[in-house]
Amino acid sequence: MVRQRILYGSVMLAGLVMLVAVDAWLSRPDMNGLGVADVLGHGGLTTVVFALIALLGAAEFCRLVRQVGHHPSLPWILVMVGLMVAGPWLAAPAIAPRLIPLGTFGALLARLDAALPPVALLGTAGLLVRRQRTSGAVADFSVTLAAIFYIGLLGSFAVRLRCWLPGAAGAWVLLATLFVVKVTDIGAYFTGLSVGRRPLIPKISPKKTWEGLVGGLGAASISSAFLLGMGVPISWEDGTRVWLTVPQAVVFGLVMAAVGQLGDLVESLFKRDSGVKDSAKLIPTFGGILDLIDSPLVCLPVAYGLLRWWTGR
């Protein structure tokens, strides 16, 4: 099982690196005006891929909550999740000006991101009223919004972080952040497997240990110090380049590790409530999409906030 986990994990990591490399290549200034690059560059490719991942995750979430008697509106959830993930890219400085010449529709697309949260609330309320089913209405309202905001809004921060920096810079910062988050999982898994003795929260996740948590914290802080403290710069169009200080990068890694563990435990709560071990059987040894994105979902909004705070932009 460990060998399988290493194999499939390596394949997925290679796929992520390839995605970011292609995104960065399409986003180079000399690629502007070349058709495909105009559509998929500056975060467009990342947006498409992460939107597909979010849609699969939303479908898994709905399947989980249906097993305990809830009835979320899957079509509505998929529409809102897709729009929420795409919204920051449509509003990005490199993309929004291209939409304005399309007229009213283009202007609406460029401003879609800000309008989606109230649309999600009002639309969900309208759907439930249209159903005219009072039994379980509060629960259905809650789980529908939970899917939209947990998967869609939190997931949109992958695109927000990507589009925050113009050109290829945002792609590499996003990759560095995701790598720190997943290194936490890797460090916690192997530390817990080798020396884990004391359960962390056995009622929610029996295999997680305090030793694994410490291993994850250490792995995240070291990887962050190298990647964001000495490796990947935060760059803007005016030529300004900033690296986090090593103490900032270490703190960044520690925060990512702690928040990532919270995300993992939250998803474990959902699975325990539904009586399943994995959110799906999509990926051998890993489970479903939710099992893969549980940590990044909660880490990326925090990462986005921290990086913008420390750089002042």
Topology overview:
Blueprint: H1 2-26, H2 36-40, H3 44-66, H4 74-90, H5 96-99, H6 104-110, H7 112-131, H8 137-164, H9 169-195, E1 199-201, E2 205-209, H10 210-229, E3 234-235, E4 241-242, H11 246-274, H12 289-311
Antiparallel strand pairs: 1-2, 3-4
List keywords for this structure.
single chain; 313 residues; mainly alpha; two-stranded antiparallel ribbon; 12 helices
Give the helix proportion (percent range).
over 70%
How much β-strand is present in the residues? under 5%
Number of helices: 12
Biggest pleated sheet: 2 strands, antiparallel
- Order of strands in the sheet with the most strands? 1-2
What does this structure look like?
- The chain has 2 domains: 1-23 and 167-313, no CATH class; 42-164, no CATH class.
- The chain is mostly helical and 313 residues long.
- The protein has 12 helices and 4 strands.
- The strands form 2 sheets. A two-stranded antiparallel sheet has the order 1-2. It has a two-stranded antiparallel sheet with strand order 3-4.
- A hairpin with a 3-residue loop joins strand 1 (199-201) and strand 2.
- Helix 3 runs parallel beside helix 11 (246-274).
